[in-house]
Amino acid sequence: MDLVIRGARVVDGTGGPSYTADVGVHEGRITEIGRLPGGGRRTLDAHGLALAPGFVDMHAHSDLALLRDPDHSAKAAQGVTLEVLGQDGLSYAPVDDRTLGEVRAAIAGWNGPGDDVDFDWRTVGGYLDRLDRAHGGQGVAVNAAYLVPQGTVRAYALGWDDRPATAAELDRMRQLVAEGLAEGAVGMSSGLTYTPGMYATGAELTELCRVVARYGGYYCPHHRSYGRGAPAAYAEMVALAREAGCALHLAHATMNFGENRGRAGELLDLLDAALAEGVDITLDSYPYTPGCTTLAALLPGWAHEGGPEAVLARLRDDAQAERIRHALETEGSDGCHGVPVDWSTIEISGTADPAYGPYVGRRLDGWETARGLLLGDRLAPTVLQHVGHEENVRAIMRHRVHTGGSDGILQGAKPHPRAYGTFPHYLGHYVRELGLLSLEECVAHLAGRPAARLRLPDRGLVRVGYRADLVLFDPDTVAAGSTYERPRVLPTGIPHVLIDGRFVLCDGRRTDVLAGRAVRRTARDLR
């Protein structure tokens, strides 16, 4: 064997009881589990450590970070061995030249402008190939799966107009989604408080989800409201999945803003009823209360019609800017989840232009400051939105279909600490300190259940024949190092991480191994 891991507490990802065993690894796969008298080319003493399947980040925004940063310790050091990209309906494939430029501008706050990336792909398959040959052909830091982004598909097919799709345009969108799934995507995402995805009707989304279902994928919506309209928005997604016969995975599922304090039970009751009917549902969440998005995302949907340059033109026009302010502060814009904005909850976390760096870490004092930042930094500022409730976070993470997702935006001088801390924070704070989940339950949430949602037949469990994507951590010391004040500090208590049996983290230090590859789920038309 290439490696024998001795005396680990095996937490196998099923949720069942942990046990002590040796684990043998050969040619990237787990070959033996038990008491192994023989040695390997390398032996690792794991007494006192838990051995778990590598964690799956079900909601990641590393679409460009994996290409620009071979180290990527933000995720590798957390024990993440697979990230799901293409989230919230906006990413970089499939595109044509026009759409690529528009999307790059629209989500510069998530991923940076991309001036340091060679966008030499236009299709989903081309993007996945690009991951495989990144960094001189070595690959990327961790594995990555991809969701076809519905907003990008809509922009490609009909632009950024707020109108129903024609029959021909809907056919084109169906074709683009089908092609992406056939090329290896695991499903489709939406961002229904982001443009142009929010312009889609329920009927349009249902038709696209029928395509997703046909290929055995899943639908991952950032639904239409996490605020005033949250219960109805969740119900819409469940009804859509039921009608389309499509598996549903609710992105960063939570109940935010004052209207929803203590109301997580309503969401969970809705899910339980649908699950009892046979609807295939999972969800992900991060173990923190603030949200994170772009400042521009808070604007009303109509302000985005026509694309990023049209938004900037409206912001420069005093009359249009006043109309936007009224929508934000009085009406409650759809971009702010139907709730009138409370500027004191909005903290700037990053800017693209260093000239606006002094605003980072500050709460906004009103519309004119926000308008100036949007214009000066060309829609790029990112924000933390302090609108969550701990009781809702705890209730949702305990549900039997819950999985972990960081929603980690790696851009900005002061990103959300979830980008660097989600997985050790679950293990340290919610398992060890609060006892909200058992260690075995938590690992199932972070590894076994996500791999099952992705329909990956050889990942997510410590089992003979499975890929040796593994994390070893100390249950007594594992903790997030990242905080709101120092968000880029790496976690403690995670000494070893392996992908395909290769150490990407060894003795707490990032190696130069690039074992990550695009994980293409074999998608076939099930008609």
UniProtKB/TrEMBL annotation:
Gene3D superfamilies in UniProt: Metal-dependent hydrolases
Database matches in InterPro entries: Amidohydro_3 (IPR013108), Metal-dep_hydrolase_composite (IPR011059), Metal_Hydrolase (IPR032466), Metallo-dep_Hydrolases_sf (IPR050378)
Superkingdom of the source species: Bacteria
Domain spans labelled Amidohydrolase: 43-504
PANTHER family associated with the record: COLLAPSIN RESPONSE MEDIATOR PROTEIN, HYDRANTOINASE/DIHYDROPYRIMIDINASE FAMILY MEMBER
Name of the featured protein: N-acyl-D-amino-acid deacylase
